[in-house]
Structures are given as C-alpha cells and as structure tokens.
C-alpha cells in the first residue's frame, strides 16, 4: 500500500512517467501547468514552473525536489498570499503514485475554494485506495501540526474525491465557485496511541 514521503530524487523516472500519463489525459501536475508559469512570470519568484523537458535533466529535477521541500519552511520567500505547504508524494516501492499537499494555514483564496489539502493521483494508480491512504496519513500529520480539522474541496462533479473526503469523515459545509467544501477532523497524536 502507498505511503507518504517527502519529495525525493529517487522517484525521478517514475515521476516523469506519471507526468506523461497526466499529459495524455490533458492534465498537468506539480509545476507543469499554467498556474506555475504565471507564478514565475507575474510574481517574480522563480522555481515554481517546470516543464516535462526540463525535468529530464537530473539537476532540474533536483531543483524541483529542493523547491518542494523548502515550501514548508515559513522563512522561504513566496509570492504574496501564498502560505507554507508541506508537499508530500505517495509512493509504493520506487513507483510515484501521486502528490498530496498540506497547507499550514488558509489564505482568503484557500478558504473559499482551495482548502488545506489537495492531492492528485496518476491515472494508472486511480481507484486502488492510494488517495484514501495518503489522505489518512496526511490527516495524522495535520493533527501532529496542531490542526484540529482541515478544509478539503473538490469539484462538484468529482465523485471519486467526494467519496474519499466523505469516507475520511468530511462534513459538507457548502459549495462555492463549483467546489464542494468539507471540514475533516484530523487525528491527534493521542488518538494514534
């Protein structure tokens, strides 16, 4: 079963294979998309945008790993309105299955439609329980960080994410801008024992 890890260079090949899977269905992940290019261009902060071609280079992939790890540190410079985030990957053996991100606090935008936690599962690994397990582990981490509950959102028509969030104890609050908003209790360290 999948487990969460900090971004690591050892998943380079598998990560690129996943990028190709997302691209084949018209999607993108982790800096290979319009939001990342906008962040680099409009905010003056470099290191958010990566292309599939650039990530073939080992040093560029190492730069992605360093950037994702640094984003959890409060002192890391970031664009205005962006918050510290712990970026995690869920893996099985040497296979990269997806990413899950735990934002340490909510900005106005995140409170509306983004939430504390976002995740993406590579197409070939969907509907196998990996996102459910990654979310469970991330809720434990959120509890350890002192968050009693976290906000998760999903598109109105994303039945898979809706099921995962509700199975984790998500309490539906409302829908805004095409997103369903749920508050999910975390697991505190005492509950783990």
Distance between the termini: 21 Å
The CATH H-level homologous superfamily: Gcn5-related N-acetyltransferase (GNAT)
Strand order within the widest beta sheet: 1-2-3-4
Order of helices and strands: EHHHHEEHEHEHEEH
**What is the third-level CATH name, the topology?**
Aminopeptidase
Description:
- This protein has 193 residues and is an alpha+beta fold.
- It has one domain: Aminopeptidase.
- The protein is built from 8 helices and 7 strands; from the N terminus they run E-H-H-H-H-E-E-H-E-H-E-H-E-E-H.
- The protein has a 4-stranded antiparallel β-sheet.
- A hairpin with a 2-residue loop joins strand 2 and strand 3.
- The model is unreliable at 33-40 (pLDDT under 50).
In short:
With 193 residues, the chain is an alpha+beta fold. It contains eight helices and seven strands. The strands form two sheets. The protein has a four-stranded antiparallel β-sheet with strand order 1-2-3-4.
What secondary-structure arrangement, pairings included, does this model have?
Elements: E1 3-5, H1 12-24, H2 34-43, H3 52-55, H4 58-70, E2 85-92, E3 95-103, H5 108-114, E4 117-121, H6 130-144, E5 149-155, H7 159-167, E6 171-176, E7 179-185, H8 189-192
List keywords for this structure.
193 residues, alpha+beta, Aminopeptidase, 4-stranded antiparallel β-sheet, 3-stranded antiparallel β-sheet, 8 helices, 7 strands
